[in-house]
Design brief:
The structure is a homodimer. The first copy, chain A, has a seven-stranded mixed beta sheet, with helices on both faces. In chain A, strands 9-12-11 form a three-stranded antiparallel beta sheet, covered by helices on one side. The first copy, chain A, has a two-stranded parallel ribbon with strand order 1-10. Chain A has helices at about 10-20, 20-35, 55-65, 80-95, 110-120, 140-145, 165-170, 190-210, 235, 270-285, 290-300, 305-325, 345-355, 380-385, 385-395; strands at about 40-45, 105-110, 130, 150-155, 175-180, 215-220, 240-245, 260-265, 335, 360, 360, 370-375. Helix content of chain A is about 40%, strand content about 10%.
Chain lengths: ~400, ~400
């Protein structure tokens, strides 16, 4: 199965081969754009936020870029500038109603960096991390990087958690449950009731298996929610909570790789856990989050892109999908629809849409076949030229 | 041995315990500064470049920070902006006399990020990486992160490579030899003659063991050299060469975490190797090197801090150490002295220096007891107040 190549690690060869269908899909999409013109193709395949960063970010960036004081770009402690971490702790208190110790904030290279230091700090070989389906495809890599095993668990049809199945999936090897709410790809937001039931389930399970089970919350979309809902505060709900997030979506700066990890002040492990996270930031080669951007995000931490634009696009796309006859759960946050496909084979349906110059991602990429992901972080005109294509694709079945 | 803590990974608890002497040392240093005043202590313990970034960097930073065009901070390909990589390829051609394909340049989160993607791309479980002693302490972690085993090999007394010992250390599990020249902590620069002999040794060994052995060159100090010497071009010398470096020292911006990996265009593995490095950048959670800094370093790539300042400090410190009676090899590059300690126990000698308010790092931290590392990336006044302390420490023995 694995292509032989004595130069490259066998596991990486295997990863590349398994991901080849995604690469092929992107290549086909690029070929379509070359053939018909990028302005004819509706590219809903990428989760790359397109809104401009808030004015406060731009002002902070220009001000801090002009700082010529000695050491402005020097190393700082691996967990980040103490002043930045204080500001982030204040922000976490506002979101979660719990104040992490300043030490319990570690500035990271985005939420992807955050998840990697969390799993490095927590996982012994073979430890399991439970994740509700659908889930972001990178999670499998992040857990595997550190010797753990991702355990995907089916959710209900509306993408709410199936707590019974989660409970059944817990074993003495379970080290964490990983949540992503608002969810990529489903747009679901877990309710406070659901999360409290999960917390109580985990407390019982911790007693049963005799060791801590952490609730790891990957929440870069926390503030990208619609219809004025609020994402429940994980750290208020569960003591062994670890939050990671980034400023990628709040400030539309995903290329800058800046985020943080926040640890509940009373989490098991105490200072050793915070020490392990900080050491992990160092030894995994991140060393520290980028210096300049730490200072910039601390100054623009309360700013947010214009979420009403995402909401407008969501509402319009909901009409279009409904008219075409697609079935979906209305996304409560993030910028994705995750409709059921009208035929079982999601890759086949994505190929049919592609014939109509509509690019999406098959749900199997998120552990959830029978769906497609439609990202609406795109200009309104892209959405406006899509109705006919969706209708034709549906009619062709 | 390992403290029990069911919350934190056992390996991380072990790492923290083994590193506790370093932490203790830094805490004692901090206590000395608090007690006597920071201006009384000679802190030679940190490799944090203190020179101001070059003017060209500052100008590029301010210009690029003011760019408000859409997508300025968006995701780009995992390997970095194509235009930045082209500029870096041109720079590598100048340094190494070999032109990597543009695809063979991967922008990274510093050289630490570079080494981690290299080892992730190369190592199968149990693969060995040979490194000449002394070596940067982080190498052990970077290799271990990806299931490999670091194999330190003794060097000659002048820190040149002991090629016979390197040859003896090669086994069928050897995947790479890792070099750092100019060297942290010794300041040694491997000569072209030495490197050519190593290359020929590796070519024979590759035939003997029947698989490629990569020469991984970690060279952030390439341009920080003294007396007008030049660091030999690894990629011209060995075909299976992979270079990683950062702009941390050239531009004095280590907090910004920006560097790159350059692969020899004819290296074994070909496109699969480049693909694996790029995938590793993504799945290890770096995702991509920070967007803004990629653009800034591409514009200031030929700039360099004022190396004559480091050379002046080196020359002055050489006088001081000689007068105190310490024996050392004159550093040819980087910003470290690595003198032999007059007593066998390097930690004890570091403690004796600490009594004189002089902070250094024992050689055992670099796999090389019987030495101490003295970093001279410090203000001249720090150096000027050190002679008496060095003399008193020597006299006290």
């Amino acid at each position: 199965m694995t292509q032989q190549n004595s130069a490259v690690a066998a596991k990486m060869m295997d990863f590349m081969e398994r991901a080849s269908w995604i690469r092929k899909m992107f290549e086909e999409g690029a070929a379509l754009k070359a053939q018909y013109g990028a302005d004819k193709v509706c590219d809903f395949s990428l989760g790359n936020p397109d809104l401009v960063p808030p004015q406060a970010f731009q002002e902070a960036l220009e001000k801090i870029a002009s700082d010529r004081s000695p050491g402005a770009h020097a190393y700082m402690p691996n967990a980040g500038y103490p002043k930045v971490r204080e500001e982030v702790a204040r922000h976490v208190q506002k979101d979660h109603g719990v104040t992490p110790a300043t030490d319990g904030i570690i500035m990271t290279v985005g939420a992807a960096g955050g998840l990697n230091i969390i799993f490095k700090a927590l996982l012994n070989p073979g430890d399991e991390v439970i994740v509700p389906i659908p889930y972001f495809v990178e999670y499998g890599f992040y857990v595997d990087n550190h010797g753990g095993k991702l355990v995907p668990v089916e959710s209900k049809a509306d993408f709410s958690m199936d707590l019974e199945k989660i409970d059944q999936a817990i074993t003495p090897a379970t080290k964490a449950v990983l949540l992503n709410s608002p969810n990529n790809p489903s747009g679901a937001v877990y309710s406070e009731e659901e999360l409290k039931a999960l917390a109580s389930l985990l407390e019982s399970a911790e007693k049963r298996v005799g060791r801590p089970i952490f609730l790891v919350s990957d929440e870069p979309y926390r503030r990208l929610v619609f219809d004025n809902i609020t994402v429940p505060p994980i750290l208020s709900i569960f003591r062994n909570g670890i939050v990671t997030t980034s400023f990628s979506k709040d400030l539309s700066i995903p290329g800058e790789r800046i985020g943080y990890v926040a640890v509940h002040p009373e989490a098991d492990g105490g200072p050793a856990l915070v020490g392990a996270l900080t050491l992990a930031n160092r030894i995994l080669g991140f060393v520290n989050a980028p210096a300049l951007m730490q200072k910039v995000v601390a100054e623009s931490i309360d700013s947010l892109v214009d979420v009403s634009i995402y909401q407008r696009r969501r509402d319009r796309l909901a009409e279009i999908l409904t008219e075409a006859g697609l079935e979906f759960e209305m996304p409560k946050g993030a910028f994705y629809f995750f409709p059921r496909t009208p035929i079982e084979d999601d890759a086949r349906f994505a190929a049919i849409l592609q014939e109509q110059l509509i690019l999406t991602v098959p749900g199997r990429g998120f552990g959830c076949p029978g769906h497609i992901r439609i990202a609406f972080c795109v200009q309104d005109e892209v959405i406006e030229r899509s109705p006919e294509g969706f209708k034709k694709a549906m009619a062709s079945l």
